[in-house]
Design a protein that fits this description.
229 residues, alpha/beta, Rossmann fold, two-stranded antiparallel ribbon, 11 helices, 8 strands, disordered N terminus, CheY-like_superfamily, NreC/VraR/RcsB-like_REC, WalR-like, DNA-binding NarL/FixJ family response regulator
């Protein structure tokens, strides 16, 4: 605590919370200007390292074991996948250029503890770093609204499975989940086998699945492919 005398009275000013001084941070961004800006914004914390690539980010996190990784990388999922295996204790604050449902779901699946839009101001970023370092989950206003929309739908109102897919892609996935081959799907939807194959490639990419079997599991868990064939 600091005591300041003013006009014969004693004004007591609270010292800066110790948690700010104790928090260590690694900043990761592919843009030098963004890294510089983040370092300035994180001036209240101990920024122990910067990284420009996913590989560098993983290396610096494993080397320094910071409390928080502030992550702004296009290939951030690579970093998150490695940290889930090697440094689960490091809290990740993701800075995103979009707050759409698919990006938010992907971030949550990846284990981030904070999710802010890149336009967040200094106070929001500082508060988020403090929060995730303390074990909280922090979301920016837009992301929080979307999260409430995802989990707060009224009972009996089902979400459309895999909203990131087009209507045709959902039709193809439904038939795949029912066990149909590409040839049968092509015949039923009056498409060429090549077109079906292209749709499947897009589906696997959007669902982040590595195989047809994995896509079938996800689809059936969502209720697709049931009662057919």
């Amino acid at each position: 605590m600091s005591n300041v005398a003013a006009a014969g009275a004693v004004l007591t000013l609270p010292a800066r919370p110790a948690v700010i001084e104790a928090v260590t941070v690694v900043v990761a961004s592919g843009e030098p200007v963004v890294r510089l800006g983040l370092r300035v914004l994180c001036g209240d914390f101990d920024v122990v390292a910067e990284a420009a690539t996913a590989r560098d980010a993983v290396r610096e996190v494993l080397l320094h074991r910071p409390d928080v990784l502030v992550l702004d990388l296009v290939d951030g999922e690579t970093v998150l996948a490695e940290l889930r295996r090697s440094a689960r204790d490091v809290a990740v604050l993701a800075l995103a250029s979009t707050d759409d449902d698919d990006s938010l779901r992907a971030a949550l699946r990846s284990g981030v503890r904070g999710y802010l839009h890149k336009d967040a101001n200094r106070d929001e970023i500082v508060r988020a770093i403090q929060g995730v370092a303390a074990g909280e989950m922090i979301f920016g206003p837009a992301a929080a609204d979307r999260l409430l929309g995802l989990v707060g739908r009224p009972l009996g109102v089902a979400a459309t499975p895999f909203p990131g897919l087009t209507g045709r892609e959902r039709e193809v996935l439904n038939l795949v989940a029912a066990g149909l081959s590409n040839q049968l799907i092509a015949r039923q939807l009056r498409l060429s086998p090549k077109t079906v194959s292209n749709h499947l490639s897009a589906i696997f990419a959007k669902l982040r699945t590595a195989s047809r079997a994995e896509a079938i599991v996800l689809a059936r868990e969502a209720g697709l492919g049931m009662g057919m064939v």
